[in-house]
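does this look right to u?? adenosine-5'-diphosphate version
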Amino acid sequence: MLNQPVTTLKGIGEKLAADLASMAIHTVDDVLFYFPYRYDVFEIKPLDELIHDDKVTIEGRIIHDPSLTFYGKNKSRLSFPVDVEDVAVKAVMFNRGFAKKQLNAGDMVTLTGKWDAHRLQITVNQYKKGPADQQTSIQPIYSIKGNVTSHTIKKTVRNALQTYKDDIIEILPDTYLRSYKLPTRAQATEIMHFPQNRVQLKHARRRFIYEEFLLFQLKMQLLRKSVRESTVGNEQLYDTERVHKFIEQFPFQLTDAQNQAMDQILRDMRSSYRMNRLLQGDVGSGKTAVASACLYASITAGKQGALMVPTEILAEQHVQSLQKTFGNKASIVLLTGSVKGKKRKVLLDKVTDGDIDIVVGTHALIQDDVHFHDLGFAIVDEQHRFGVEQRRVLREKGMNPDVLFMTATPIPRTLAITAFGDMDVSVINEMPSGRKPIETYWVKENTLDRLLRFIGKRVQHGEQTYVVCPLIEESDKLDIQNAVDLYDHLEAFYQNRLTVGLMHGRLSPEEKEHVMKQFVDGDIHVLVSTTVVEVGVDVPNATIMVIYDAERFGLSQLHQLRGRVGRGERPGYCILIADPKSETGKERMRIMTETNNGFELSEQDLKLRGPGDFFGKKQSGLPEFKVADMIHDYRALETARHDAASIIEQDLLHQDPSYQTLNHYLESKDIFYEKLD
Ligand code: ADP
Ligand code: MG
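got this back:
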């Protein structure tokens, strides 16, 4: 069985087991499905196709015995000529004198290393005696941690496969394997770790992409079905008249898109089934205005409301603006980690007694000691910032409250419906009229000082600026260094004429909040930051967003960063400093300068999507999979969605014996999706 601890495998003791545990590898099953995150492909190409400075693989016959020379302290250099396509290529190898004995004139060898096209020379870092097994060899690359090396993982996987391969049971019914020509689960698992060639690997990946999507879609659609079927009797009988009056007191008219979203939400509230709805719209499109009218509707139905946001500052801002909007129509309180002791207890008692109408807070909202009298409507802002568990707990705070998730992440509509299969989706796709669009410019780095002078002038007029550096995921250190260097440059440039602040991921949450608060209060004029600023804090005086190395961000993230400025009276500017090398990179910058509409942008993005990371994976708000990628493998996702729908419609999981294993797997496995319920 595959759920045995890793220590049952040959050669794995307590120590290694502990190291593996830190990588979330506990069982044999975890080992088998710890897939490489990428592959290095060595392909033997004709000499004249080799590119200077590339890592290449060649095969040939050794012309003379290697000669070994020593230099420096304990350093050696082995060199020998190799006949490749009748051309003498020079091979050099450093500090591997021991290889001299193994390599003799007349031997066939396969060499991998860096190619010097001018000297026809290869600096070898990997060699194999004999010809290459195939024209292509594929090296799996695993992500590793601590004491665990790539080699250890490979050995462990090999071990696990040897003993347990036959225990990897097929979970997909045969019909799918046949109609999509997919390898079995056992075959595909082995291939993922030890691929023989590209074609084989492609099919193994295809299998897991489909499997992941199908499981995901089944989970989503089952969830949605059960929500629809199980919740009855939570109709919120709100007072239409009063809700209308409430909307009329807004100092503006709702846009058509806002009206439509509002109708959809109110209809859900009135119905007996529990709302589970996603409200998408650009920053400033008026989501919160709609949400507050719906909160009010809930209050007129005699219920309480909750609004959960990711940070304390954001919570404070929401309380203030809601209090302004509601006046004496509702009692609204703030509940964050800073509300402690007696104050917290008094507040919680009031919530329990129903003396409070609306609670706004961070995850402090979902602590065990928070009990609502009758929670009817819960809103989760910036939904992708909360984990699955947190959102589930919030939902269970009331008797099936209606839940509205709000997000400013622009996801193409078609994708959103598929990605959030358990939710209904409302979209606000227009901005209130009269809004000044943010002007976006794309410049090169050598204009930085000119730009800084421009910023200096705007600051004299009471405006503020963000300067954002990209997050370099592999290297936290480098990432901070970038921000620190830039901060130093700005400090030197402005001397003491204005205040520059610095924020990055290494600061504690409290420190971050503190810096952000200084910026909100206007004590910092220019804030240099890594991407931690993306959360929707409102700084009305912030008019300029400078994004450094903009080509490193996904389009949707660029757009969200841009949404941080131009929220007040004055026009906003977004300056992209970028020197993209690729055509698509340039295209992305052009799109940014040409469109201000998040949905348009995300549709373009979907079209443009190359092999790359347009959405900037982590920031997309889409769930993440081991092998599959929602954007890249969109067509497989659609197929899986249809298949899941028909499986559920015909109840095949229970009616058809060939679906029994799949059903078991779905039920037994806690399939966990990072970004989604
Ligand atoms: P979001 O939550 O989508 O970022 P908000 O609801 O906070 O947007 O709205 C942003 C700003 O625009 C607020 O100051 C709000 O009062 C204002 N606003 C909202 N809807 C409209 C509208 N239809 N017309 C004009 N201004 C609006
Ligand atoms: Mg309802």
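The CA atoms of residues 212 and 628 lie 7 Å apart. idk if thats expected tbh
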